[in-house]
Amino acid sequence: MLSHFLFLQWKSFVRGAGFATGLAQKIILGFGWVYFAFVFTGLAFIGFYYAQDELGEDPLVFLSGNLIYGVVFWVILRYFLQKMPAVHVQPLLALPVSKKSIVRYGLSKTVLSFFNLSNLFFFVPFGIILFREEYNPLGVLGWWIAVGSLILATNFLNIMLNSVDRILIVVAALLAGLFALQYFEIINLAVWTAPLFMAPYKQPLWGLIPFGLLVLLYRWSFAHFRNKLFLDSDAMRPKKETHRVADLNWLDRFGRIAIFLRNDIRLIVRNKRARVSVWMGFAFLLYGLFFMNDIYSSPVWMVFVGIFVSGGFLFGFGQYVPSWDSSYYPLMMTQNIPYKEYLTSKWWLVVVGTLAGMILSSFYVFFGWETYLAILAGGVYNIGINAYLVLLSGAYTRTPIDLTSTKNAFGDKKSFNLKSLLLSIPKILLPMFVFYVGVLVHSKGVGIAFVALVGILGFAFRNLVFGWIEKIYQQEKYQTLLAYKQKNA
Amino acid sequence: MIEISTLSKTYGAQTVLNIEQLHIPAGQTFGLVGNNGAGKTTLFSLMLDLISPTSGTVTNNEVIVQNSEDWKTHTAAFLDESFLIGYLTPEEYFTFIGGLRGIKKEDVSIALEAYTDFFHGEVLGQKKYIRDLSKGNQKKVGIVGTLLSNTPVVILDEPFANLDPTTQIRLKNLLKEQASASGKTFLISSHDLQHITDVCDRIVVLHQGKIVRDEVTSPDTLKELEGFFSEQL
């Protein structure tokens, strides 16, 4: 049975629309793997001897004491970055394939994720060092089982977080509560949990508890999906949303572009995937808060924050610009719409989103005018340069977005993932470089001015750039139409 | 109105369409018939510049489709569900299409009244998104969207498929009415020989990408076509 599934998986990869780009990405990801393997293995060695020699602590006790932070961090990272497994279930339902094996396959695919395997590069070498340093072998084994089970358990927890909103809310509230307790120093999580993580070393049988947790979470997600494999279950069929009436007549003052803007607003309001991308934009607004300490130590982060804070919408929604229209792209290509008009309306949408970000982020003034000015400069740069780059990369992305992806029990419901993060890197590095040049020339202020200036220059050449992007879109038109036909690739 | 010369489309070694010459005069109701894989949808897609030809061109009202986007102003088409926007209600979709064609919202509402019978009370005022409608009702939305556009050229791929019998007959009357009254050029493909001979002035048969029959519709056409498809192919 497994070989059948693997056969389908292979075919869908090789015959997918983005095979060439998919392959390039796979190669880049491959390098990423090697990199992380080195880093994690190195971390195991350095971490062990650093704790032992520099801190003078027992490395195992030290690690166990801080493991709770790792676990929480991992859960959060997984939620935002790990892709959910996509199994195209519908055609399999009427075939002689048991539903159990469909679910088992979908779930086991997630185990091979980077977020699980990468841990091996840390914990295996770390364990080997423990053996060599003559720790109790049975204890190390117990500890291994406990930690490994816990990592896999977060894998299945993440699946549930992604599929059931209620669980997400509960877990998020729990984490927020823990964070608050820690922050206000009511309890010290590390101190509280250290004995728990050390217990399996002292008595290997304790390792069975995390293992039991893993089994429990696996069974839970198994049951969850098993019950959803009916055509009329919520997971397989898009929910018939109640019609939200909104004429959006106030948009008419924008002239012909209003016709498109109205559609895009409805797209965002009525489709979960698009909605999530906008919420991500809001989350990015707060993202800068994490960096407030670093800004003072290294000013280059100022621009990084500036680009991100105002550009949440740009990166979350704009990144996928023609793809949002993929399910009706032939209509857009035959209707009375010149390409230029289509692109302009998308550009406006991204610009308005960025402007909104710039205004909403005004609370950063509390961290000093310089900080807010950096954000504003980042916003100007986003409008002047990144808005084009987003449109440009859109011409080549060609990933069809199935707006009704909830049809698929294992559907990938997120539009924000590792891939879109990779695509964002050049859009951030360039302004950081410009800023750095400004700092070298004179000061931080000049750096900020440089970034804004580049943005304004980009804005000034709008017509030129648009003509250019239009040509590229026209060249790529047939390819794009073909790619969008393959909805489930 | 539409002029096709030495148009061909090849995928690898396989030629899926090869038309030496085809002229469709303004005001004609042009019917395209052929078995699966005969090249009907390929021809329409080429006319709409959705795929690029291996050789040749399509000229639509003196605009070479492959070179300029200007044909879009006077052509409306409905090929399949990828011409619908699933997250809109039918009313919003019509307003969107109308807006692109410079038709005001109020005028769209007035124009829609003519299609009340055709919709059979199942499309308008349902407060449903197009993606939640049945296949047949989705098709109705697409067809009316193109007719509403009020363009001189209308292209419909298999408009009768998926419709219930009553609606098929209503569609037939609708197309006949519009063709005789407005002087529009209609290009329609179908697998239903009866319907297409009822509606069209001229029938072209495609087989393996080539035009094998091209004739003006007469009372005998249906019989001839039935004979042709049961014996020849």
Please outline the major beta sheet of chain A.
none
Q: At CATH's second level, what is the architecture of chain B? A: 3-Layer(aba) Sandwich
The figure for the number of domains of chain B is 1
Strand element count of chain A = 0
Task: Report the top-level CATH class of chain B.
Answer: Alpha Beta
- Helical segment tally of chain A? 22
Strand runs of chain B, count = 10
What is the CATH topology classification name of chain B? Rossmann fold
Can you describe what's shown?
The complex is a heterodimer of chains A (489) and B (233). Chain A is mainly alpha-helical and 489 residues long. Chain A is 75% helix and 0% strand. Chain A folds into two domains: 2-6 and 14-226, no CATH class; 249-485, no CATH class. Chain A has helices at residues 2-14, 19-54, 59-81, 90-93, 99-111, 114-132, 137-163, 165-183, 189-202, 208-226, 257-270, 272-287, 292-297, 300-310, 312-316, 321-324, 329-334, 339-360, 369-397, 418-441, 444-460, 462-485. In chain A, α7 (137-163) packs parallel to α10 (208-226). Chain A is globular and about 75 Å long. Residues 406-416 of chain A have low confidence and may be disordered. With 233 residues, chain B is an alpha/beta fold. Chain B has a single domain, classed as Rossmann fold (3-Layer(aba) Sandwich). Chain B has helices at residues 40-47, 90-100, 105-113, 116-119, 135-148, 165-182, 193-199, 221-232, and strands at residues 2-11, 14-24, 29-33, 55-60, 63-64, 75-78, 153-157, 185-190, 202-207, 210-216. Chain B is globular, with a radius of gyration of 18 Å. Chain B starts with a strand and ends with a helix. Chains A and B meet through α11, α17 and α22 of A and β6 and α2 of B.
